[in-house]
Write a structure and sequence with these properties.
Blueprint lengths: L2 E2 L4 E3 L7 E2 H6 L6 H8 L18 E7 L2 E6 L9 H14 L4 E6 L12 H10 L1 E2 L22 E5 L7 E6 L5 E5 L7
Parallel strand pairs: 5-6, 7-10
Antiparallel strand pairs: 1-2, 2-3, 4-5, 8-9, 9-10
Organism: Geobacillus kaustophilus GBlys
InterPro entries: Fe-S_Maturation_MIP18 (IPR052339), FSCA_dom_sf (IPR034904), MIP18-like (IPR002744), PaaD-like (IPR011883), Zn_ribbon_PaaD (IPR056572)
Protein name: Phenylacetate-CoA oxygenase, PaaJ subunit
């Protein structure tokens, strides 16, 4: 049983208190694809809190059918330990936005590539202190620009960073260590 409280807040004994009448009305309504995409823009990568899964290019497809939302995501790395967290965050966000049912699947094909990262995502990575991967890879050394000073006088200290998708670099210009996202490109 719901009780009306101050400021139109509704609560039932033992339920989620603090929900407003608008929150209860949102649950179970039919969302549009555009609303789902806008909601997904709010879901941040659990390891890089300034970048959304949309900006990382992880969202491959969104389908809405009879109020049920189906979302297909591309993992940045198949062995990423954060996939369960990402799935839970997506399900929670879309349900809170009003979907009656949410299904999230991770696809292996097409594979995610680093060129899927949006310009906004690349800028947010830099602001977070992570160098984005190069747009174009050419044979030879991997040139990485320092996210702090913009210098290209950088060296890789360790191919293996704190996560599977990042490496550790050092900037000879500003003397700062930093992480860089590994480029993942499909050779043609």
């Amino acid at each position: 049983m719901l009780k009306k409280q101050n400021d139109a807040t509704l609560a039932a004994p033992g339920s989620q208190s603090g929900k407003t009448a608008a929150d209860w009305e949102m649950r179970g309504r039919i969302m549009t694809k555009e609303e789902v995409w806008k909601t997904l823009e709010l879901v941040k990568d659990p390891e890089i809190h300034s970048v959304s899964i949309v900006d990382l290019g992880m969202v491959e497809r969104v389908d809405v059918h009879d109020g049920a939302v189906s979302i297909s995501l591309l993992p940045t790395f198949l062995g990423c330990p954060a996939l369960d967290i990402i799935r839970a965050k997506v399900e929670e966000a879309v349900k809170q936005a009003g979907a009656s049912a949410v299904t999230v699947e991770f696809l292996r094909h097409p594979p995610w590539t680093s060129d899927r990262i949006s310009e906004a995502g690349r800028e947010r990575l830099k602001q977070f202190g992570i160098a984005p991967p190069p747009r174009q890879m050419s044979p030879g050394a991997w040139q990485v620009e320092c996210p702090y000073c913009g210098a290209e006088r950088t060296v890789m200290e360790n191919l293996f960073g704190p996560t599977a998708c990042r490496s550790i670099f050092y900037c000879k210009q500003c003397k700062n260590p930093f992480e860089a996202m590994k480029p993942v490109l499909i050779s043609g």
